[in-house]
Amino acid sequence: MKYANDQLSKPRNWETLRTLPVTPLDQIPQILSAARAAQPSWAALSPKKRSQHLLNFKEAVLTHVDEIVELIHKENGKPHFEALAGDVLAAIEVVDFFATKGMRALRDQNICLGNPLVLHRQSYLNFWPVGVVAVISPWNFPFFLPIGEIAMALITGNTVVFKPSEVTPLVGLKIQELFEEAGLPTGVLQTLTGGAEQGAALIQSRPNKIFFTGSVPTGKKISEIASKLMIPVNLELGGKDPMIVLSDANLDYATSAALWGGFSNSGQFCASTERILVHESIHDSFVSKLKEKLPKLKGHLGFITYEKQKTVYERQIQEARDKNLDFFSGGNFNPERTQLEPTLVGGSGIEDAEIYKEETFGPVLAITKFRSIEEAVRKANDSPYGLLASIITNNIPLAEEIAKKLEYGSVLINEVGYTASLPETPWGGIKETGWGRKHSLMGLMDFVHVRHIHKPRFHFLKFKSFWWFPYTPFQYQTFRWYLETHRRSWLARLKAIPVLLWNFVQFLKNEKRT
Length: 514
Ligand code: NAD
Hints:
This protein has 514 residues and is an alpha/beta fold.
């Protein structure tokens, strides 16, 4: 079957790169069964062996770096440097982290029990893979994003069925090819091609977990279906990230941060800076400094990856023009309509415009002013999204105070956007940005089930529990006086202890458990 559409094309001139067959829908349940069949023996490998497979994959990537960078550049349209740093290097670091540190999170974890009635018992946590994980990915970081999720799923003993975006399937298939080159056993990772239909069929084939990264509307559809099938789902969705620039900020630094935050990956970045909230005292100088720098982006801006995205830009820009907002810069496409000029828009009424409120996912910064820190926090939080926020200032303690009031999954002080590439740190958002976290040892917990194991502390300490049948008077009094030891007052607690002990001894002597 051919997958002929305008999406499989080279963003620079929309010329078709290759025509690919899509995975037939009726094959998807069989693919899932193969993943399920491969999972027990993959999970039975020691974490060290699984980690070795990931390290082999890393070597395969390193052997083919230039070829991968070229493919990402061609299929996605981002500059070579962004493909190298944002996709390949970030992927290498995430694989390395989980291959070398991931095993730590899988060790059994002891739990301290506080109840004196169970001093003779012990509890610990034991982790086990969820089974088959479906990884469904977008096109903006076609190499790095899915590799992070695949690495986390594999190190924890799961097998994976991966559906890359229909906009960047060649990069998706390259990931599969590299894992095969690294010797990953058959069935442990399988890659589908196709779009929404294949994604939906993958979910209907009942994986044990869905790891979805993409838009809010698709995320909502997926979580609705997943909830009917009782499949847990992680949702990494859109954002409208604010950057708060305080009055003491260094303007050169702040405008450079806005430039990279807003225009790297051509703004096609979930954690792009899309809203700038700047203190009114420096608003005009911030705008003129930023305007001075915008022409310097020439030759460094990537292409619009997905043609359909242009309709969002057109709609938001038209509405902003209708509202007579100030276009300080940009607002037009290049003659080939493959790039949107870096756009800076603001002015009175900006906060009511879609360009300020809704995700653009493009090279557009919407700027507004604030008078007080409270106003900045209120405006930053006044959004349906909650992925990442930035604060630019020289006053780090104040920034930390502000950070703790911001309703975002990550807050970066004097930095923008980039921490998805730090595998040690958790990534994810709140509100319509979704739920769940990936990366970091905390994120690994989303790929495992937790099993609580409770056992005798010492083998020879074996007696019937005090709360077992029959229910008797001394038993009742023992528990009644034990309750008194929870009182706030030390005196009340001390008074309870002798009565508790007396009842306890009578209980043990006279009232045998059935
Ligand atoms: P999208 O929602 O259109 O598609 C994402 C993936 O879902 C694709 O593989 C697509 O084929 C698949 N899909 C579409 N409909 C489906 C369905 N009904 N069932 C199952 N699968 C389906 O998103 P996109 O345009 O590829 O990506 C852009 C969006 O991704 C932006 O909103 C961006 O903010 C978000 N994103 C978020 C993060 C994050 O970490 N929070 C990272 C990158 C991108």
